[in-house]
Amino acid sequence: MKILVVGSGGREHALAWKLLQSSQVEQVFCVPGNGGTASLNRCENISLAMDDFEGIGNFALNEGINLVVIGPEVPLAQGITDYLQSSGLKVFGPNKAGAQIEASKVWAKTLMQEAKIPTANSAVFNRAAPAKSYIKDHGVPIVIKADGLAAGKGVIVATTRNQAVEAVEAVFRGQFGGAGEFVIVEECLIGQEVSVLALTDGLTIRPLLPAQDHKRIGEGDTGENTGGMGAYAPTPIATINLMERVQKQVLDRTINALRAKKIDYRGVLYAGLMITPSGEFKVLEFNCRFGDPETQVILPLLETPLEELMLACVEQRLEQMPPIEWKQGACATVVAASGGYPGVYQTGKVITGIPEAEAAGATVFHAGTTLNQQLMTNGGRVLNVTGIGENFEQALRLAYAGIDQINFEGMYYRRDIGYQVKG
Predict the structure, then answer these.
(1) Domains of the chain, with CATH numbers?
(2) Whose CA, among 16, 138, 293, 396, lies 20 to 30 Å from 8?
(3) DSSP classification of residue 249
């Protein structure tokens, strides 16, 4: 098989890395890829833009690509799946109609309410004044969400009324680009977040291992939201009983609701959950693709060949597949970020120490890197330094032993990833 992966982050490096472990996969191409995918055997970066659907389609047809895997949400929301499918290509990733579940938080919230999926109480506004009145009436803490895609940064947890009002004003003045035509003001749920990524062919839906992400930039889960500063899997808080309830009340109901809307959804459905101290859960958000950095801790534990699962989704025969097999143990990743992220940061810094990190037992997935004569930083989140172990203690030890070997100017990382499962 020849597989084309669209995307340039740590998720896409992990996808290419995992796909290449299969004897059935001859070669992987990445559009545009990064410094990590450029370094993989039997993997080649293709210099095309992710929104160049025609160029991507022509390359895939000319190269005889058997499967196209779409990593990021933006091309999915723009309709890349629809375009490539119209040329007869097999594409793993939902169509434009399905991608609305991430591209519009308002659309997703309406779907959840219609399907009776547990979710936070909220209200939607297209002007600032009534949103501010709602905040005044409901008090803080409260959550402000920009409607559309904002690279994981369009959610503000406000602990004071001034913060909440400033967040509403930021959305409506366009701080999050086109994501800010509507704002959702939502109750603030207390508990632990769990990421449940599931594979679906539009009829059957199967969860992968539950993971826990660390969204905040600062240790102790403080500061601004980011795209994710680290993760681990499988999270112990997602018990067998809880996952059975998530299957019935979230995953099955969502796929049924999408089918009722005549949406043929094939790919990943990602449910971000809040688990309360009493063990109840509510859906915070849906994503239409593999999570990042959750993918980097889920795929290393996957035993079933990834391309077999993806093809079963694309060809709508997931129900016929045997149960997904997993390695015993745990996986954890720590994000090495550029100084200043998630705000203004510099790129073009030389990265050293990756061979030493891997010699120390870590697996390093590149997120924002580029490889010319030297490996350089090329993004806010630069590397995912990952440990795979028999237990969380070992996995975290390997990840941090690896990150201790790596250096680039301004490098920042959280030292408390996995604090929920330590000791």
Answers:
(1) 2-95 (3.40.50.20), 121-187 (3.30.1490.20), 192-320 (3.30.470.20), 330-403 (3.90.600.10)
(2) 396
(3) I
**3-class SS of residue 314:** helix
Give the amino acid at 355: P
Q: What is the DSSP string of 55-72?
A: HHHHHHHHHT-SEEEE-S
Does the pLDDT value for residue 403 go beyond 70? yes
Distances 385 to 212, 293, 414, 421 between C-alpha atoms, Å: 16, 10, 12, 18
Cα–Cα dist 134/64, whole Å: 55
CA proximity to 249, closest of 119, 103, 101, 109: 119
**Alpha carbons 353 and 385: distance in angstroms, whole number:** 11
Strand ranges of the sheet holding 205-207, from the earlier edge strand across to the other edge: 205-207, 192-200, 267-275, 281-287
Where does the pLDDT of residue 17 fall: very low under 50, low under 70, confident under 90, or very high at 90 and above?
A: very high
Q: Which residue has the tokens 């800010």?
A: 180
The answer to whether the CB of 301 falls within 8 A of the CB of 230 is no
Structure tokens at 1: 């098989």
The torsion of the CA quartet 397, 398, 399, 400, rounded to 10 degrees, works out to 50
Q: Which two tokens stand for residue 340?
A: 């200043």
pTM (2 decimals)? 0.96
Neighbours of 276 (CB within 10 A): 12
